[in-house]
Specification:
Largest interface: A-B, 101 and 101 residues
CATH superfamily of the largest domain in chain A: NAD(P)-binding Rossmann-like Domain
Shape of chain A: globular
Largest sheet of chain A: 6 strands, parallel
Radius of gyration of chain A: 21 Å
Strand order of the largest sheet of chain A: 3-2-1-4-5-6
Structural class of chain A: alpha/beta
Number of strands of chain A: 9
Number of helices of chain A: 12
Helix content of chain A: 40-55%
CATH topology of the largest domain in chain A: Rossmann fold
Oligomer: homodimer
Strand content of chain A: 5-15%
InterPro entries (chains A, B): 6-PGluconate_DH-like_C_sf, NAD(P)-bd_dom_sf, PDH_C, PDH_N, Preph/Arog_dehydrog, Prephen_DH
Protein name (chains A, B): Prephenate/arogenate dehydrogenase family protein
Number of domains of chain A: 2
Keywords (chains A, B): Oxidoreductase
């Protein structure tokens, strides 16, 4: 692997940024990596664990002279951060992000991007239920997808360079159109997360009735949900608020189907249930065949063998 | 570990029974293990891979002389199987099962149990999304709960012996009252499974619209759901039909909560969402502290270190 950018600035130092830093170092993808986080505590932690070559006390300092600036903050504050750094961006620099929603990020960030700076939104499909500067690890993106969502007029050379960068981080990179991104993610990630949060909330209500039995005997189904429902609250609040339409659309379809299955249970329609479950089982095989999950009991959340 | 039963008969040779067999051998818990499965193909497979010391061509043969008979068939056929084996049970033998639902199994099986035979229902909280005689492994029950659900008049010595047996298989054993079992499992397992099936079904509908993108980019949330939704269709059909009331009750609560969250998304109530997600995150910690999941990326579905 060889150096792709002279200087990379990471704004926000949580799970994704910290994993990016370790993967940049692993691949030798940048000459220097600067970092900034709003909270003093996070900056202190970063300095203590050697996260970033240089941790700056304000965002302006961090982006100064950077060839690539990556916004790794919750989707809801992308616009404010873009406004803050805009005057300090180097001409010819590329600004990117790692937000789970793209339409709203583009709307919030684009207006602040100065002439001569390239904005290339991106979204690495990788994560764990952990958050914060100490949760990152170099292998997080290995064999995972990173979607580039170029906006109108995105410079093709800037896009190509960012692609090489993400490939260097270990990802498989593809480009996707903005609306499609938000819909596909609503199905594969946003709605499932809200559903997991809901189910865990229901169990919590019941826990008060059944003491700690629900937790004690958390069988496979529920335990998996709790892992999903342990993800960063701020990040997910912003995802739902900013990908509102697609998420509500998918949740509407979900409720319809759930009612149909509930009705089958109530009326004792075993055939309908069996057919449905047979169909969903086939989808699992599709995912394994597509290489998005191995058959190993890992759930893609840990370190991936390369 | 020492021998607990002279002869154990496993009726039905899927994931649970095959794991029991390997764990019995590992612990030296029985002198001989006989097995029976309804399908010729399953019996052939069992013989080929050495599953059971003796595979019988009918259930009567398998249970003859057995001190412990374990019904490892879908909940919906427990009654029919009990009727079939009843005349061939050895006086003083214990009959148990591994069904995920208990009220309906007790109602279906109890009437067939002859005088002098002990019926002690049980439910090991362990599984994977795989099924069939080749999916078993000796470590499946290690550190997992097995709930004993004694019925009125269950012989205390028979219960104690079955407890020792399940402890020998690697489980932590507790007794639970029948109605409570069905409610707790509806929360921790049955409702989550139905929800996962539903979400995967919704994605499948959409897949036809978005080609294979939903599968290709199955991010963490959805991928975890597909694993749950790949479980055995027959087993789960029977679970929902036989634990109908508790499952529908929990799904009703779930829908209520989901609507409240959808409303918060629609109205942009970020505070409500953030509070909710913070609460569910705490539950995850409770589960890790309760030792029902480690922090390792394994989801409790694989082999557990002992």
């Amino acid at each position: 692997m060889s150096q792709i950018y002279d200087r990379v600035a990471l704004i926000g130092l949580g799970l994704i940024a910290s994993s990016m830093f370790w993967a940049i170092k692993r691949g030798g993808l940048a000459g220097e990596v600067t970092g900034y986080a709003r909270s003093q505590e996070t900056r202190d932690t970063a300095r203590r664990i050697g996260l970033c070559d240089r941790v700056c006390d304000n965002a302006a300092q961090a982006v100064e002279g950077a060839d690539l600036v990556v916004l790794c903050v919750p989707v809801g504050v992308m616009g404010a951060v873009a406004a803050e750094i805009a005057p300090h961006l180097k001409p010819g620099a590329t600004v990117s992000d790692v937000g789970s929603v793209k339409r709203s990020v583009v709307e919030a960030v684009s207006p602040h991007i100065p002439e001569g700076v390239h904005f290339v939104p991106a979204h690495p499909l990788a994560g764990t239920e952990h958050s914060g500067p100490e949760s990152g690890f170099a292998e997080l993106f290995d064999n995972r997808w990173c979607l580039l969502v170029p906006v109108e007029g995105s410079d093709t050379r800037a896009v190509a360079k960012l692609r090489a960068f993400w490939e260097g981080l270990g990802s498989n990179v593809e480009e996707m159109e903005i609306e499609r991104h938000d819909l596909v993610l609503a199905v594969t990630s946003h709605a499932p997360h809200l559903i997991a949060y809901t189910m865990v909330g229901v169990a919590d209500d019941l826990r008060r009735v059944t003491d700690s039995e629900v937790i004690k005997y958390s069988a496979a189904g529920f335990r998996d949900f709790t892992r999903i429902a342990a993800s960063d609250p701020t990040m997910w609040r912003d995802v739902f608020l900013t990908n509102r339409e697609a998420t509500l659309e998918i949740l509407g379809r979900f409720t319809e189907e759930l009612f149909a299955l509930q009705r089958a249970i109530r009326t004792g329609d075993g055939e309908m249930l069996h057919d449905y479950f047979t169909r969903t089982r086939a989808i699992r095989r599709g995912i394994i065949e597509a290489g998005q999950d191995t058959d190993a009991p890992d759930f893609g959340r840990g370190k991936v063998k390369t």
